[in-house]
C-alpha cells in the first residue's frame, strides 16, 4: 500500500511540474520575445511605451526565480492571470464556464458508467449469443464514430431537421423563468449535448466491462454460487460484476481525461457555454492567459478526481490493503 | 497454446472487415492526386453548386470541388495517423525495453512520467503548444507522439520484465549470448503484438486528434483536413448544404476510425489468450 501511495504522489508531483513547465517556462524559453509571441495576433500598435508597460505588467523584467515566485504565489491565491482580450480575470471567466462543464461531464460520466456496466455484464453473460454479438457489433460501430461526428450528426438530425431541441446555449436567454421552469429549460438544453457525450463514452466502458466480466465468470466461485442455487441476477451483479468492475475503477482517471476532451468538441458543436466553448474562443482569439488558465484548472480537476479515486480504491477492492 | 496470428485474423470477421475497409481508404488516399477531378486548392466552379456529374459532391463557399477536397483530406488524416503511430510506438518501445533492462532510478523516472501523462487531458496540452509555436503539422505530429507513447511503454516494460525471467532467455544468457542477441532473437518477436496493437490504437487517436484539432482551428488552414472541412461547413448550416458538404467528411472520418477500431479489437482477441472462447484447444 505504501509503495502504491508513493508512486501516485510521485506521478502527481510530476504532473504539476509538467504543468508549471508548460505554463511558466515554455513561454519564457521560446525563441524570440514572449511579449511579441503573446500579442502578435492582436491588432494593436506595439509602441516602445506599450511594450515596456507589458513587460512590467507580466513581470518579465525581474530575474527568473522572482518571476517564478510571483507566479506560484499568484497561483496559490487562485489568480490565474488576466485575459486582456476579454478584459476580465481569467479565473472569473473559467468559474463562469466551469459549472456547465461539470454538469455535462459529471452527468454523462455517471450515465455512461451505469449503461456500460449493465450492458457489459449482460453481454458477457450471453457470450456468443445473438444479443451479445449484435450488441458488440453495434458498440464497435458506435466506438468508431468520434464524438465530433456524433455531435454534428445529432445537431443535423434533431436540431436542424426536426427542430426538437435547441441548437445553442445552456438556457433560453431573458426567458425570466424561475424555479421549475428554469430547471426544465436547463435540462431541455442539456439533452442533446449530454446524449451525444454519453453515447460516445458508453462503448469504451462496455468493452472494458465485457472483457473483464468474461474472465470473472469463469472463476470457480461463480460456479459455486450457481450450484448453491443463488438467483442469476444476484450472481451477475453481486458476485461477478463486483470483481469485474475493478479494472474499470482504476481507469476512472483516464476516462475523465477522455470525457473532458469529448466535451470540448460537443460544447463547441452545440455552443454550450462551458470550458470547451471557452477554450474555443481562447483559441480563435489567441488568448494565451486564458488557455493557460483552462489547462491549469482542467489538470487540477483531473488530479483531484484521481486522488479521490485512489483513496476510494481501498473501499472498492479491500484486497489492496493486504497486497503489499 | 500456439497462436497463428494470420490464420486467426483471417477467421475473425470483424478484423477482416476492418482490414478491407482500411486498405480501401488507404488506396483512395494514395490515389488522391490521380482520382481527384479538380485541384482542391483552386476555384473550379461557382460557389455552392449542388452535386452534379461534374462535381460529385458540389462545390463549397469559395467554389472548391468538395469531392477533391475530401480525397486530399483523407490523405492528410491517414499520413498524420501513420506518422504519429510510428513515432509514438517507437518511443514507447525504446523507453519500455530500456526501462525493463536498465531498471533502478531510470526505470522509476520513466514509469512515473508515463503515469503522469496518463491523467492529463492531452488535447489541452496540444492546444497550448500549438498556440505557442504557431500551427505546423510537424510540430503537432511530434507533440502528439510525445504524449501518446506511455501505454506502449508500460505494456512493453511489463512484457520484457516477464520475458527476462523465462527459462529459455536465461539459458541463452548462460550460454554466453550477448544481450543484443537475446533481444532480437527472443524478446523483440514476443513484443510484436504489443507494438501492432499500439500502432493501431495510436493511429486511431491521432486521426481523431487531427480532425478535432483542425476542427477547433488549430491547424494551418491551408492544409486539406477533414476537421477543417467540417468546421467550415458548420458555418453554412442554414444554407441546407450540410448533406453534401458536412456529411461526407463526417462519414469519412467515422469509417476511418471504425476500421481501425475493428482491427485493434481483432488483434486484442487474437493475442490475449484469456479472451479466447475455447481455452483448452490442444496444440
Automatic annotation (TrEMBL), chain A:
UniProt xrefs under Gene3D superfamilies: MetI-like
Protein's name according to its UniProt entry: ABC transmembrane type-1 domain-containing protein
Domain ABC transmembrane type-1: 98-313
GO CC aspect terms: plasma membrane
Topology class, membrane: Multi-pass membrane protein
Chief location category: membrane
GO terms, biological process: transmembrane transport
TrEMBL record, chain B:
Entry membrane topology: Multi-pass membrane protein
Stored InterPro entries: BP-dependent_transpt_permease, MetI-like, MetI-like_sf, OppC_N
One GO process term, biological-process aspect: transmembrane transport
GO cellular component: plasma membrane
Organism superkingdom: Archaea
Residues covered by the ABC transmembrane type-1 domain: 74-264
Compartments, record wording: Cell membrane
Signal peptide: none
PROSITE patterns xrefs: ABC_TM1
Keyword field: Cell membrane, Membrane, Transmembrane, Transmembrane helix, Transport
Transmembrane keyword on record: yes
Pfam families: BPD_transp_1, OppC_N
Membrane as UniProt keyword: yes
Transmembrane segments: 14-36, 78-101, 113-132, 138-156, 242-267
Similarity field: Belongs to the binding-protein-dependent transport system permease family.
Annotated protein name in UniProt: ABC transmembrane type-1 domain-containing protein
Amino acid at each position: 500500500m505504501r509503495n502504491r501511495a508513493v508512486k501516485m504522489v510521485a506521478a502527481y508531483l510530476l504532473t504539476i511540474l509538467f504543468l508549471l513547465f508548460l505554463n511558466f517556462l515554455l513561454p519564457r524559453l521560446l525563441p524570440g520575445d514572449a511579449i511579441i509571441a503573446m500579442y502578435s495576433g492582436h491588432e494593436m500598435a506595439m509602441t516602445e511605451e506599450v511594450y515596456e508597460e507589458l513587460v512590467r505588467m507580466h513581470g518579465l523584467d525581474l530575474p527568473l526565480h522572482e518571476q517564478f515566485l510571483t507566479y506560484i504565489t499568484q497561483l496559490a491565491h487562485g489568480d490565474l492571470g488576466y485575459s486582456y482580450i476579454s478584459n476580465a480575470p481569467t479565473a472569473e471567466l473559467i468559474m463562469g464556464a466551469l459549472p456547465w462543464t461539470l454538469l455535462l461531464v459529471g452527468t454523462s460520466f455517471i450515465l455512461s458508467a451505469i449503461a456500460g456496466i449493465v450492458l457489459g455484464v449482460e453481454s458477457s453473460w450471453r457470450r456468443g449469443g445473438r444479443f451479445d454479438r449484435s450488441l458488440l457489433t453495434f458498440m464497435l460501430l458506435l466506438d468508431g464514430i468520434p464524438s465530433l461526428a456524433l455531435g454534428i450528426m445529432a445537431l443535423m438530425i434533431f436540431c436542424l431537421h426536426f427542430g426538437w431541441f435547441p441548437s445553442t446555449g445552456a438556457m433560453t436567454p431573458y426567458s425570466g423563468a424561475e424555479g421549475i421552469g428554469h430547471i426544465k429549460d436547463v435540462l431541455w438544453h442539456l439533452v442533446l449535448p449530454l446524449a451525444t457525450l454519453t453515447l460516445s463514452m458508453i462503448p469504451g466502458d462496455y468493452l472494458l466491462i465485457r472483457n473483464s466480466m468474461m474472465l470473472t465468470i469463469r472463476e470457480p466461485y461463480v460456479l459455486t454460487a450457481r450450484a448453491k442455487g443463488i438467483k442469476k441476477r444476484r450472481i451477475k451483479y453481486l458476485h461477478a460484476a463486483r470483481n469485474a468492475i475493478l479494472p474499470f475503477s482504476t481507469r476512472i482517471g483516464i476516462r475523465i481525461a477522455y470525457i473532458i476532451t469529448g466535451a470540448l468538441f460537443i460544447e463547441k458543436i452545440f455552443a454550450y457555454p462551458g470550458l470547451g466553448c471557452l477554450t474555443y474562443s481562447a483559441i480563435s482569439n489567441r488568448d494565451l492567459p486564458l488557455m493557460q488558465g483552462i489547462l491549469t484548472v482542467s489538470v487540477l480537476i483531473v488530479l483531484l478526481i484521481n486522488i479521490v479515486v485512489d483513496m476510494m480504491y481501498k473501499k472498492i477492492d479491500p484486497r489492496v490493503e493486504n497486497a503489499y | 497454446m500456439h497462436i497463428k496470428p494470420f490464420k486467426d485474423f483471417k477467421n475473425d470477421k470483424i478484423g477482416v472487415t476492418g482490414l478491407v475497409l482500411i486498405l480501401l481508404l488507404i488506396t483512395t488516399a494514395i490515389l488522391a492526386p490521380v482520382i481527384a477531378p479538380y485541384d482542391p486548392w483552386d476555384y473550379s466552379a461557382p460557389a455552392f453548386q449542388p452535386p452534379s456529374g461534374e462535381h460529385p459532391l458540389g462545390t463549397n463557399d469559395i467554389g472548391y470541388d468538395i469531392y477533391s477536397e475530401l480525397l486530399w483530406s483523407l490523405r492528410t488524416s491517414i499520413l498524420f495517423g501513420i506518422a504519429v503511430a510510428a513515432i509514438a510506438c517507437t518511443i514507447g518501445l525504446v523507453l519500455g525495453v530500456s526501462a525493463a533492462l536498465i531498471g533502478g532510478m531510470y526505470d522509476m523516472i520513466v514509469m512515473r512520467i508515463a503515469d503522469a501523462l496518463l491523467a492529463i487531458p492531452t488535447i489541452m496540452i496540444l492546444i497550448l503548444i500549438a498556440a505557442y509555436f504557431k500551427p505546423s503539422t510537424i510540430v503537432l505530429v511530434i507533440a502528439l507522439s510525445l504524449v501518446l507513447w506511455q501505454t506502449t511503454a508500460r505494456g512493453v516494460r511489463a512484457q520484457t520484465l516477464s520475458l527476462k525471467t523465462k527459462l529459455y532467455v536465461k539459458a541463452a544468457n548462460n550460454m554466453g549470448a550477448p544481450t543484443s542477441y537475446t533481444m532480437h532473437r527472443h524478446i523483440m518477436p514476443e513484443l510484436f503484438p504489443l507494438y501492432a496493437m499500439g500502432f493501431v490504437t495510436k493511429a486511431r487517436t491521432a486521426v481523431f486528434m487531427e480532425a478535432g484539432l483542425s476542427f477547433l482551428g488549430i491547424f494551418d488552414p491551408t492544409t486539406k483536413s477533414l476537421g477543417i472541412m467540417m468546421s467550415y461547413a458548420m458555418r453554412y448550416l442554414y444554407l441546407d448544404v450540410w448533406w453534401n458538404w458536412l456529411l461526407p467528411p463526417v462519414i469519412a472520418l467515422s469509417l476511418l476510425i471504425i476500421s481501425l477500431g475493428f482491427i485493434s479489437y481483432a488483434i486484442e482477441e487474437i493475442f490475449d489468450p484469456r479472451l479466447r472462447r475455447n481455452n483448452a484447444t490442444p496444440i
